[in-house]
Automatic annotation (TrEMBL):
It comes from Leptonychotes weddellii. Coiled coil: none annotated. It comes from the Eukaryota. This is Rabenosyn-5-like. Residues 25-56, 204-223 are annotated as: Disordered. PANTHER family: FYVE-FINGER-CONTAINING RAB5 EFFECTOR PROTEIN RABENOSYN-5-RELATED, RABENOSYN-5. Residues 39-56 have a biased composition (Low complexity).
Length: 223
């Protein structure tokens, strides 16, 4: 099989499968409106990931190749590159997904810590001082990760030539600003924990206060 002068060779089976799979998926997206986007996306990704790229099969035997001209080969390789780029997830998306996961973790853990800290500062023994201290360290580490991720997003592509589009840079600044506000607001709510000595004193005071209330209640019931 050949074309246009037969001046170059290309693998046939896996590469044509890759190109035709992408075309079929694109067609099915338009002809099957009842199919969910997730299922279409999953099908496309599955078909593409299940075959090898052109470069990875250059050592295949001659039976699995076709001969074609350089122009046709370049066209096929360009088409493959377009398919790969379509499946590529931009760095800013990957970093932002990690950032959102960290924020969700803070939204889950910070209220738990605040309850513990309030209880311990009141001299209550419902929670462990050590557990609360460990949780505080965990939350603070997530804050540090949020700060680092948002800084990385802010500086994405600044050393590239050409630089990112102005709208992209503005988006990166907005993400950094929002992350900074998030950390500042949440940190304000993280009350400090008592030291071990302070906690012992708080427990004594609470015990004395509870005893005083019981005495007053007993006296009130006797009169």
């Amino acid at each position: 099989m050949g074309c246009c002068g037969l001046t170059a060779t290309c693998p046939v089976l896996c590469f044509t499968d890759k190109l035709t799979s992408a075309s079929k998926d694109s067609l099915s997206t338009h002809t099957s409106p009842s199919q969910s986007p997730n299922s279409v996306h999953g099908s496309r990704r599955g078909s593409i990931s299940s075959v090898s790229s052109v470069s990875s099969v250059l050592d295949e035997k001659d039976d699995d190749r076709i001969r074609c001209c350089t122009h046709c080969k370049d066209t096929l390789l360009k088409r493959e590159q377009q398919i790969d780029e379509k499946e590529h997830t931009p760095d800013i998306v990957k970093l932002y997904e990690k950032l959102r996961l960290c924020m969700e973790k803070v939204d889950q853990k910070a209220p738990e810590y605040i309850r513990m800290a309030a209880s311990l500062n009141a001299g209550e023994t419902t929670y462990s001082l050590e557990h609360a201290s460990d949780l505080r360290v965990e939350v603070q580490k997530v804050y540090e990760l949020i700060d680092a991720l948002s800084k990385k997003i802010l500086t994405l592509g600044l050393n590239q030539d050409p630089p990112p589009h102005p709208n992209t840079l503005r988006l990166q600044r907005m993400i950094r600003y929002s992350a900074t506000l998030f950390v500042q607001e949440k940190l304000l709510g993280l009350m400090s924990l008592p030291t071990r000595e302070q906690f012992e004193e708080l427990k004594k005071k609470r015990k004395q206060e509870m005893e005083r209330k019981r005495i007053l209640e007993r006296q009130a019931s006797e009169t």
